[in-house]
């Protein structure tokens, strides 16, 4: 169980949104005069966010505050809300600041604790998540902060929670990850709001976890990323991915009438979603109908992945058709990886034009911003994690390999 809980302060433990502009522009005299505008967040479950440190300390846990605000400000806020702590690291305590890991590392140093995934850093924005990653801690993001769902899902935390009280169920924290990552990795899994990665609101988009590209060190240990990649060629992981999709659908607070996959291209012979969704059917309500041919592709686009988002949006127009009359029924659209959303967006428009009611999207994974890149010292390109075809050993290979650069390094 976690030994250390480190917290961000503003918009994580307290609502200081009224002072956001003053703090951003370092108008500290104005901040001093308006400290009374800082508010507690409402209770989330059986605890309000500012009560978490006290409840955890009462339970024997070590608690720290790591903030980019100055010491006088942080101390005043912690006193104002009677928030106890074992260590406080503020802006002046380190040379580098979040998303650099130095402030978190300084807190651990003062506590005499080594970095470990058993310890948590809890924050509200992507800088907190990235700092935790570089420091070697498990990242926890809170939903009540101001950061958009899309931004947080693109740099997603290890644990995403909507209720403060989720953090108090310490014996279950190890199973609070995303359902797709848990099932493909054979990890413990406990259902909660953040079991499914919430990616967007218009239309609503869900993902079963995070997809890491080969230039991200996390790719090498991501069972979900490997399973999604393999699905392009075979059905080795169709059963476990189907189970994840089915259980995720069953856990939604919204029930579709139909489940429809993004269709295969005319040049493709194999429907990569067919076996997966036939497996998924065993796990969701039998009143939900699977329609594998609810959409079809009527034009194939060359070089689509190399296009920028604006080019994609233009090229994808009119690429899909539906011969069904959906009669206002709700549809859940299934895709593999959610990146910029142009393909699924056009599918949603096609379904709506054919009479579908609300259409939501569920993808196997959400594409992630790379936190750490390894640069090839020979040519300056990004390096990717590759696998030797004979020994199955992973190694770093230049993205220009083999035609433009043959540099490799041990992983």
From TrEMBL:
By sequence similarity, the record places it as follows: Belongs to the ComF/GntX family.
Supply the InterPro entries for this chain. Answer: ComF/GntX_DNA_util-trans, HAD-like_sf, HAD-SF_hydro_IA, HAD_2, HAD_sf, PRTase-like, PRTase_dom
Name of the protein described by the UniProt record: HAD family hydrolase
